[in-house]
Structures are given as structure tokens and as C-alpha cells.
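Please, structure for the following, as C-alpha cells.
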Amino acid sequence: MSRQIVLDTETTGLSFETGDRVIEIGCVELLDRKLSGNNLHIYVNPERDSHEDALKVHGISNEFLRDKPKFAEVAEDLIAYLRGAELIIHNAPFDVGFLNSELERAGRLKLDTFVDQVTDTLVMAKQLYPGKRNSLDALCDRLSVDNSSRTLHGALLDAELLADVYINLTRGQEALEIGFSDHGTASVAVASVDLRRFDLPVVRATEEELAAHQDVLAQIDQSSGGKTVWAADRRHL
């Protein structure tokens, strides 16, 4: 079963290298691309105050965080929750940098030693929509994800929105309907289908089916006099 964790953090500022710290961690679990409900939400006492600009972004007061656990106290629970999963993060270097800094400070190993991999949805979005705004809000608007409740940044809320955005970004090909005009030319109509309404199991070919497929390819190649593209490519290797 594929396990992915959509993750977001809030911090006291923009640079862990100058001492800024994590104050909130939000995680949303996807099992086979479906929300499991097994989420993780942690507030952390950063042992320092947030910058004024950061406060305007997340609205989490210094007073609210005073009695929250320090990162070292929650590190083991976080590691156990993330272990073996693929992390889905928007602008991953920011969050990964902060989390690795906190892990190092707590005497723990870095993320890449216990998670499977990290996928950056900002990189994905830039490849899909080059030259366009690809912030989380912009992607929500573009992909019809309701972000009306996002008046301030919050790690869990942003992770929930990003989970929806990620599923939309990786949904795959939309349905194509091919018809012909009166002049015999093909016309293509694209119909958007929300695949979240369907259960889409992955069915892999058996060894027998793969062998039968190769046999058909060989027959086609023989009928064409050895002119098929796939066979020609192999002959040139």
C-alpha cells in the first residue's frame, strides 16, 4: 500500500540558518492516494519569539506557544509517524531545511535517513504551468480547490489543501471524445472527469499476459518485414 504524507510547517521566520524555529507541523496521510484520516498536528514551543512579519502570516502568538512542547519532546513521535513514507511538500527545501535543523538540534538523524522520498509540488506545478503563479493559493484557484477558509496560514489547513491540490495535479489524463465532422476531419472534445468519485485499483499484467503481449508484437514485426519502430529501436541498441 502506497503511503504518502502531505506536510507543511509554520515557523518564527524565514531562515533556520539564523536561528528561526518551527512552531507548527501539519501532516495529512494518503493511503493509495486517498485521505485516511490519520493526520498529525503539532504545535511547538520554539524557545524564541516570531518575527512581526511571520506573525502577520500565521497569526500564532508567542503567548499561545509558551506551554507547548519543545521539538525534542515530540521528535520521536514525528519520526515514527513519517518513517518510510513519501513526503509531499510545497516548496520542499524550506520545510525540509527547517525540519532537518530541528532534528539535528534534538540529536536526531535527518529526514532522508527515515523517509522514502520527498516530492516537491512547487517543482511539479512549475513544470505543468511554466511562467504562471504557482503558490498554494494560485493552484487552489486553478484547480478549483476551495481555500475560502484560508485567511491565515496554518500548517494543518495548508497540508489539507495541498493534499487536494496534489491529487488534482497527478490525476492523469482527462476523458477524450473523438468524433468526425461532415468533412471527415476528426474533432476532439475534452470532458473533465473527477476521478476522486471512483475507486481505481491498479491491476498489473500477469507473466502470461506479458508473454502473450510480446508474442503479438513479434507477429506484427514479422508481418511488417521487420519495420516496426519498437523492434528497430532494439536492433540499434
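The chain has a mean pLDDT of 86. The longest helix spans residues 207-223.
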